[in-house]
């Protein structure tokens, strides 16, 4: 009996679940999967409880409850000056992951080419493949992980349908500059492409770096679907509430696919997320400030353990090169790491088509409590990380 379809068989299982299971099994410090170990604002949780007890327990409208769509529109206006019609230009999704799925299934036909930044978040690969699309990766190369505009231009062909962008970028921590984004915009306009941009780390940027939404560049609103969620910025990764914004036709395509995926997203959580956006607007900035300190703690601790990280400009993640330690690749290193040091990390090669570009890279999360990070790097510094 054939127990799974070729569609799912051809996609490797998600490395995040694999590595979190490894951490649980071994009791290792989990610096792998990116989720915080402290929840978001209590007032938002109280709002969810109120909604649960107040009868918000049947299907929400597929497009999302009005209060959340309005709050998303206000958020886009407040932060970026974007005027978004909450009735036609916002759709609520079950996390940004469903936004990615809806956008790819709603916008890509079999054989269409999708230009995607590499390393890519693993669900991009899965969803491009499920949509029947063809990946055209543009590699952000270590150690700087900047966008190579010539490589971007070279990746576009007459079959290109869309560009799948991610800034701030997981796993590299790169925040695309206005100039880099302008280059993406120029290519998209020249070739009449749609851009789907995952901006889920929009508020988690450090130092002088600034997140620029692609949709704010001239000529880009009309061809851009922007994705975000409450998960990262308000520390509710398990709630799985996100949103897509953009022009009516493109958001309509996301909704057309979404109705057959989840139909609607969780009713009681939507008013609570609206509360987060409207009444806890300063929470993400405070989180970013604390994350910056934890970034510095992790980067310094990794250095003490002989691992040099490129200092991330945004997100939850830092990347190190492990090639000097003698391991065949980052996956072998990460699978051995619980036994070697009692720590779990993520092998970045899971996010590359170009094996050589990612083989030697390992991603470490710093969205954990300072004591957890301290214990993780203490263990790394005490261990012999070289392959024996
Ligand atoms: N976005 C988080 C990460 O990159 C978690 C992803 C997941 O588990 N699907 O680690």
Protein model, in words:
- The chain has helices spanning 6-9, 15-26, 42-53, 66-80, 95-107, 122-130, 149-155, 178-190, 230-233, 248-261, 269-279, 283-304, 330-341, 355-358, 370-382; strands at 29-30, 90-93, 113-118, 134-139, 160-166, 194-198, 224-229, 242-245, 309-310, 317-321, 343-344, 346-347, 361-365.
- It is built from 15 helices and 13 strands.
- The model has no long low-confidence stretch (mean pLDDT 97).
- Helix 5 (95-107) crosses helix 10 (248-261) and helix 12 (283-304) packs parallel to helix 15.
- Strands 2-8-7-6-5-3-4 form a 7-stranded mixed β-sheet, sandwiched between helices.
- The chain folds into 2 domains: 6-40 and 283-382, Aspartate Aminotransferase, domain 1, CATH 3.90.1150.10; 58-279, Type I PLP-dependent aspartate aminotransferase-like (Major domain) (Aspartate Aminotransferase, domain 2, 3-Layer(aba) Sandwich).
- The chain binds glutamine.
